[in-house]
Amino acid sequence: PTDPNSMFKEGFLAAVYQERADLPVFTRFPPEPNGYLHIGHSKAIAINFGFARFHGGQCYLRYDDTNPEAEEEKYFTAIQEMVHWLGFKPFDITYSSDNFDKLYELAEKLIQVDKAYVCHCTDAEVKLQRGGENHGPRYACSHRNRPVEESLSEFRAMRSGKYKPKEAFLRMKQNLEDGNPQMWDLTAYRILDATHHRTGNKWRVYPTYDFTHCLCDSFEKISHSLCTTEFILSRTSYDWLCDALEVFKPMQREYGRLKMTGTVLSKRKIGKLISEKVVRDWDDPRLYTLVALRRRGVPPGAILSFVNEVGVTTAVTNIQIVRFETSVRRYLELTVPRLMLILDPIPVIIEDLPDDYLEEIELPFSPKSPEMGTHIVPFTKTLYIDRTDFREVDSKDYFRLAPGKSVGLLKVPFPIRATTFTKDPETGLVTEVRAVYEKPEEGVTFKKPKAYIQWVALSASHNSPIKAEVRVFNPLFRSENPDAVEGGFMKDVNPNSQEIYSNAVIETGLEEIRRRAPWPEEAGEKDIGKKAGWETVRFQALRVAYFAMDKDSEGGSVVLNRIVSLKEDAGK
Ligand code: ATP
Ligand code: MG
Ligand code: MG
C-alpha cells in the first residue's frame, strides 16, 4: 500500500501548506447532508482530515446545512460513520446552521457598510443585468443604490414574513465591472418557505453558499480551506466578503475532483437505479457510494491508499474502475489472510483411503507473511473441488483433474488421480468423481503434478465444510461512459452484474479469521470490528478471488461478496 501521507509531503498540498505555514492548521470537510457520500468524497475526506493530521492540526466535520429543502437525518449519521470508517476523528462536529444568528448579524453589518442591498428583481431581470445569454453589457438595477436604511428595514421585513419567496432577496454590492461572474452582485440571503432540520421555523431567510461558506470558515479559524476547482472563481467573492466584513480571512485553494468512469455517482441516478430495482439500496456492493464499498468489503485503508496513488493536483482525475480495483487488489494482497473456498463444489471420493481417514494439514494464512500464522484443515476421504477443475475428457494441454489424470491438492503431500465419475442424467452435470490417492511406496520418489487446486474436505469432527452464499459482482454498466449511451445510463446496465453461488463451501479457517478480524488492525477499523464482525472479515480465496463477509451474514449464515478478482481480466 502507498504511504497514506505521501500526498502531503510534496507537490500541490505541500505547497499549499507552505503558503500559510505561519498559522495553526485547521481544515474542514463540509458536506451537504443531502445524500450518501461516494468515492469522490473520500478524496475530500483524505485531503482535509489527512492534511490536518499530517501537520499536527485539526479538522472539523461541518455539515453545510443551509439548504433546508434537501436535508434528512439519516444522511447526518451516515456521513459521520463514513468519516470514522476511513479512520478520522473530527476535532468537532459543527453545523453551518448553528451560525444562523451570527450570519444574520453580519448580513446586517454588510448592509450598514453599504456593501449589500435588498433587491426585488426577477431571475430573468438579474440574468439580463449580468449581461444575458449574449454576454452583453452589465448594469446595476434600481435597487442597488437605495439608501442603506431602506435596505436594512426591507431585510428585516424579509425576515419577518412580509415577502414571499423570490419577492425580495439580499444581494452583495460587489463589482459589476469585474470580469469574474462571482463579483456580479451575488445573492447573500433568500426567502424559503421551509422548515429547517435544526432551526425549525425560526427563519424565513436563509444564507446562500457564497455568503455562508467563507464566514463559517472564518468563525472556525480555518487556515487552509481546501475545495474543488469548480470554486476557483468563487475564491474572489470569498476574499471579497471576508474583507468587506473585516473578519479573519482563511485561504481557499482548489484541487481537482476525483471522478470514476464506468459508473454513476449522482444522487438522482443512483436513486433511479434503486427505484427501478437494478440495485437493492444505496449500499449495494455494485455502487461506488462509500456505504456500498464498505459493504462490498473494500478496506478503508485501500481507499486512502488509492487516493494517494491518484495524487492531488489541480487537474480533475477520471479514474477507471479497473484502476481502482488494481489499487484495492494490491492492498489486499499484502494485508489479508488466505483460505480455500469452492464456488461450485463437486464431491471427490478417494476410494483407497479408509472411511475414517483423517489427516490434519497445516496451512499458512499467508505464505508471504508468516506472522499471520497458520491454521489446521482436515484432509479426509471425501472432499470438494470446483466443477471447473474437473473435465470429463482429458487432453494433453489440460493439467487439472480428469479421468486418468493426476492433480495436486494444495498443501496435501501427494496428488490424487481421477478414476471414474457419475452424472445426473437430467442436467448432464457431474455429481461425483472417484479418485485414488497417489501415495508412493516408502522411499520411492513421485512426480510432482503440474497443477495444484484448492479443496475442502468433509469432516464432521472439524465441522467442515462451512457453507456459504457467494455473490460475485461484475461492472454494473457495460460501457466506460454510461451517460453517453443512447437512451441514457439505464440502457447501459449490465444484465450480469451479479452472479450468485448458493452452494459454495469454505474451509474452517474462516472461523479463525472471523475471531481475529480485523486484519490488519487499522485505525478506523478497530472500533468497528468490535461492533460487528462481518464488516472486517476479508480473505483471499486461493485461486478464486478476494472476498468479504456481507451484512446479510448477520443472521448467522455466511454470505460473501467478491471484493475484486485475483487478476485484472479475470471473471468478466
Ligand atoms: P455531489 O453533487 O457529488 O454530492 P457536492 O460537491 O455537492 O458533490 P458536497 O456534499 O458539497 O458534495 O461535498 C462535500 C465536500 O466534498 C466538498 O468540499 C466537495 O468539494 C467535496 N467533493 C464532492 N465530490 C467530490 C469529488 N468527486 N472529488 C473530490 N471532492 C469532492
Ligand atoms: Mg456541494
Ligand atoms: Mg452534495
UniProtKB/TrEMBL annotation:
This is glutamine--tRNA ligase. GO terms for cellular component: cytosol. The keyword 4Fe-4S does not apply. Residues 25-332 form the Glutamyl/glutaminyl-tRNA synthetase class Ib catalytic domain. SUPFAM superfamilies: Nucleotidylyl transferase (SSF52374), Ribosomal protein L25-like (SSF50715). Keywords: Aminoacyl-tRNA synthetase, ATP-binding, Ligase, Nucleotide-binding, Protein biosynthesis. One of its GO terms (molecular function) is glutamine-tRNA ligase activity. It catalyses: tRNA(Gln) + L-glutamine + ATP = L-glutaminyl-tRNA(Gln) + AMP + diphosphate.
